[in-house]
């Protein structure tokens, strides 16, 4: 009885804390029913360095402690609309948050394709990530089993019923950890390369070039490798003033 009351009180305080933290935005998104309990993805035996690396990165993404622009901008107090991804091939005006990096960013397209194929393979066709909603896939990529995917597993084809559900889940989560670990490692490398390539500029006279202005406003530092010849020329002119 006392133990139950203590747990309830602890849970209430924890929920209040979770709801008050901006950095836990993604955590609230994937855990719609906040429960103070050990999460599945933390309980699996980890057989390789990839598993461990992936688990650590998943945790960092879940709690907003990572090197994505959305998290770094919180520290530097950059407005959200300026925390944009600078890695995409087509420089989309997209905030670099967990969802963008894991599900949309073109730089990680190859890793994503491998993940989708591997998840289908290890689940013997029971889980096809292409058919689930973006929200469900995001949950799975961050270690939460969404109802939609659980239902898919419960009603999986006969051909994949020779494998126990818990074994499929374990295999799938290993693939997800591999993916998240690989993506975040590549992201860190790109981040480092970007810092080395950046050229400081003086922000003047770019009003008629909103695309470049956006980049400059974002960080006041521009990744030269992503600029067109014209933009690079303008940048050089700007930097000389
Ligand atoms: Zn991107």
Can you walk through the features of this model?
The protein is mostly helical. The model is unreliable at about 200-205 (pLDDT under 50). The protein has a two-stranded antiparallel sheet with strand order 1-2. It folds into 2 domains: about 40-195, no CATH class; about 200-240, no CATH class. The chain is built from 12 helices and 2 strands, in the order H-H-H-H-H-H-H-H-H-H-E-H-E-H. Zinc ion (ZN) binds near residues 88, 100 and 105. Zinc ion binds near residues 85, 88, 105 and 107.
Task: Please identify the structural class as seen in this structure.
Answer: mainly alpha
Shape: globular
Q: What's the count of strands?
A: 2
Q: Number of helical runs?
A: 12
Can you write the helix and strand succession as a string? HHHHHHHHHHEHEH
Helix content: 55-70%
What is the mean predicted local confidence, pLDDT?
78
Ends distance: 73 Å
Q: What is the radius of gyration computed over CA atoms, rounded to a whole number of angstroms?
A: 21 Å
Count of structural domains: 2
- Residues in β-strands, percent: under 5%
Major pleated sheet: 2 strands, antiparallel
| Largest sheet: spatial strand order | 1-2
Q: Which ions, cofactors or small ligands are bound in this entry?
A: zinc ion
Task: Report the uncertain regions.
Answer: 199-205
């Amino acid at each position: 009885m006392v133990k139950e009351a203590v747990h309830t009180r602890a849970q209430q305080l924890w929920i209040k804390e979770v709801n008050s933290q901006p950095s836990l935005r993604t955590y609230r998104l994937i855990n719609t029913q906040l429960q103070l309990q050990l999460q599945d993805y933390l309980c699996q035996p980890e057989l390789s360095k990839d598993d461990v690396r992936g688990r650590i990165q998943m945790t960092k993404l879940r709690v907003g402690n990572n090197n994505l622009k959305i998290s770094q901008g919180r520290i530097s107090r950059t407005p959200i609309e300026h925390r944009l991804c600078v890695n995409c091939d087509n420089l989309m005006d997209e905030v670099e948050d967990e969802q963008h990096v894991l599900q949309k960013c073109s730089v990680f397209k190859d890793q994503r394709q491998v993940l989708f194929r591997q998840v289908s393979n290890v689940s013997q066709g029971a889980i096809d990530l292409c058919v689930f909603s973006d929200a469900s896939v995001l949950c799975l990529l961050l270690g939460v089993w969404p109802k939609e995917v659980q239902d898919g597993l419960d009603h999986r084809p006969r051909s994949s019923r020779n494998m126990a559900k818990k074994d499929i889940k374990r295999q799938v989560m290993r693939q997800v950890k591999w993916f998240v670990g690989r993506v975040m490692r590549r992201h860190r490398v790109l981040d480092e390369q970007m810092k080395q390539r950046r050229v400081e500029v003086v922000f003047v006279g770019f009003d008629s070039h909103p695309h470049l202005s956006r980049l400059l406003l974002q960080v006041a530092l521009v990744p030269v490798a992503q600029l067109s010849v014209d933009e690079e020329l303008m940048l050089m002119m700007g930097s000389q003033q």
